[in-house]
Design brief:
alpha+beta
Amino acid sequence: MLGIALLTAVALVSGCGNDHGNTHDSPRIIDTGNSGGTKVDPSLTESTARDRLNTYLLDSLQGLSPGLSYSITSDNHYLGVMHTPSLRVPCDDDGQHGSGSVLQVSYWFVGVPKGQNAQYFEQIRSAWTARGWTLQKDADERWAPVHTPDGYVLVLQYAPSQDQSLSVTAGSPCFPKAVGDTTAPQPTEIKRP
């Protein structure tokens, strides 16, 4: 799963095209809607991007059962641990590779009662779209990327094959490379207050 999250990260920040013929077990491409390069937001820093991503993740837990949270450790022991809950990935500004970075965070959605992943998947996806976040055109019942009005992307998806565990990956807009290097580590868990 970490491999899929990492491939999603590359697709999320690269401005790649649309998904053509991928199966549910293959990495999916995030449609950034921008084929002319990713614009660097000079007012954004890694720290503010991290705070905003964490706020979006916390907000996504509201209205769900209190025992639900995000963790780098799955409820299913054989899925392993997402060793790095956050990555800083290079992005480009009109084709000038490496002028900025995007922050991506990835977690397992934990505490879901057995057999209820589909219900929680739909609840979260519905809550995201009720906020006015745009659901990507090729979303389906196993993969739901949304785009916020301020340029963030959140992706809810099932783990490959028959496991049915849920994961969430979120990415920030591109910020200048020079304002990166935050020392604040991403939490290993995000729990509803």
